[in-house]
Amino acid sequence: MSADMVIPYSVEPHPVTGINNGKFGIWLFLASEVMLFGALFSSYILLRVGSPYWPTGHEMGVNILVGAINTAILIASSVTIVLSWAALKEKNFAQYKWWMKWTVACALAFLVNKLLFEYYPKISHGHTPAFNNFFGLYFLITGLHALHIIGGVIVNGYFLTGYGTRLWKTDPEKFVGRIECAGLYWHFVDLVWIFLFPVLYLM
Amino acid sequence: MSADHGSHSSSHGHGDHGGGHTGIYKKIGGVLLVCTVITVIISWLPIKTVAAIVALGLLVATFKASLVAAIFMHLNNEKKIIYWTLILCAALFVPLILLPVLTTSDHGPGRVIAPAAPNMDSKNWQEGGHGEAHGDGHGEAGHEAEPAAAGAEHAPATQEGAPQEAH
């Protein structure tokens, strides 16, 4: 908490990169996440192309309506989190909290949809990851994505608490940077779902 | 430009106009929702080839992803270091995705690489489930997969009829 503990370039741009360390760091993290999900998509392609028969999502009872609703929910949450950041840029903290609350609410709605209307019906019908390769991949990729959603809920929820928002009073620009990083992560999670939905549900 | 914004808006590529962009964020959100509807409609279209459905679906998904990346993630006005990070990522991502294509091309089309998983031929995969066998044969391994799979539970549906290698 003392001045000795200040990490350089956490707000002002680094002379080499031109941006602050947090933003560079989150982009590097997102690049690694691209490779993580890319490896799973690559596995999906390999298994599907190498299989004599690959069922469509419809044949496997995947609910396109629930998937489409979840897509809309995540898109809405992307809009709300960027609006929360924009509100902070306008120094409107109350509006920031309003939009961030909606972001967390959308994320929770996504999780409830997924667990109640997708995972539970499938597992109760015996369509577990062990049933066939389709469901093995389906549960793995959507499960990993859901874990990312949970991580986002924890982080975004933290930035709604009194402790998580202290920085707004002591160093508002640094706090805006944190919210931007959280937003970048959240948009990435949305991006993954934008590709997941057509690949698993519609093809 | 970056020197002027050095100590104030260092966190953001496009400076201090974040608040004035709320209108465009909502509009892009609307466009994304419309594109989602279009994606669902594409899946309903009577398109015969799987490749065409996949191409169309991925085209719309790529367009949506581009909007999210450019507008929401502010990539349309970002520092070069971020662009180079993503270019490096893309350069490694392309071979990652192409690996299965390269792998299967060694063996030729229609050759099963992975051992047949349980419940994966057109009869067995229905067991215990409620899926209906539409027999669309979406696997690219062979469009004759239906009759071939029905007659041979373990042999792959290969065009040259070669037996599956033991692994």
Short note summarizing the structure:
Chain A has 203 residues and is mainly α. Chain A has helices spanning 21-49, 64-89, 93-124, 133-158, 166-170, 172-202.
Q: How would you summarize the topology of this molecule?
A:
The complex is a heterodimer of chains A (about 200) and B (about 170).
Chain A lengths: L20 H29 L14 H26 L3 H32 L8 H26 L7 H5 L1 H31 L1
Helix pairs in contact in A: 1-6, 2-3, 2-6, 3-4, 4-6
Chain B lengths: L21 H23 L5 H23 L7 H28 L37 H7 L16
Helix pairs in contact in B: 1-2
What features would you describe in this structure?
The complex is a heterodimer of chains A (203) and B (167). Chain A has 203 residues and is mostly helical. Chain A contains six helices and no strands. Chain A is elongated, with a radius of gyration of 20 Å. With 167 residues, chain B is mainly alpha-helical. Chain B is built from four helices and no strands. Chains A and B meet through α1, α2 and α6 of A and α1, α2, α3 and α4 of B.
Distance separating the two termini of chain A:
53 Å
**pLDDT below 50 for ≥5 consecutive residues: which ranges of chain B?**
1-17, 125-167
Give the rounded overall mean pLDDT of chain B: 67
Radius of gyration of chain B: 24 Å
- The ordered H/E elements of chain B are HHHH
**General shape of chain B:** flat
Calculate the terminal CA-CA distance of chain B, rounded to whole Å. Answer: 61 Å
| Helix-strand topology string of chain A | HHHHHH
Please describe the structure with a list of short key phrases separated by commas or semicolons.
heterodimer, A: 203 residues, mainly alpha, 6 helices, elongated, B: 167 residues, 4 helices, disordered N terminus, disordered C terminus
